[in-house]
Automatic annotation (TrEMBL):
Protein name per Swiss-Prot or TrEMBL: NADH dehydrogenase [ubiquinone] 1 alpha subcomplex subunit 1
Organism: Sistotremastrum niveocremeum HHB9708
Job description of the protein: Accessory subunit of the mitochondrial membrane respiratory chain NADH dehydrogenase (Complex I), that is believed not to be involved in catalysis. Complex I functions in the transfer of electrons from NADH to the respiratory chain. The immediate electron acceptor for the enzyme is believed to be ubiquinone.
Assigned GO CC terms: mitochondrial inner membrane
Family: Belongs to the complex I NDUFA1 subunit family.
Domain of life: Eukaryota
Coiled-coil segments on the chain, per record: none
Record carries keyword 4Fe-4S: no
């Protein structure tokens, strides 16, 4: 049975396009996460820790090894004000 050589061009184009798209999505996700893989199954504790890391370092994936928090950490509370009734 002969091989349909003319089918290899569309096959190569489709394969290249899917590979390029997957690579670009991976690069975009890692770029948003400071070069680290994305997080999955994030629960309330993880969200709270990511908010704390964002307040400490300015990035939700950054972490700090300092023993004491910076002085501005005392005033940039994550608690939002709500209207008194």
């Amino acid at each position: 049975m002969p091989v349909p050589w003319e089918a290899f061009i569309p096959f190569a184009l489709l394969t290249t396009m899917f590979a390029a798209t997957g690579t670009l999505v991976n690069v975009a996700k890692r770029g948003q996460n400071d070069g680290k893989p994305p997080r999955y199954n994030v629960d309330a504790w993880d969200e709270m820790m990511m908010e704390r890391d964002r307040r400490l370092t300015g990035s939700h994936r950054g972490q700090s090894v300092d023993v004491e928090a910076p002085k501005q950490f005392a005033t940039n509370s994550s608690w939002y004000t709500e209207r008194a009734r």
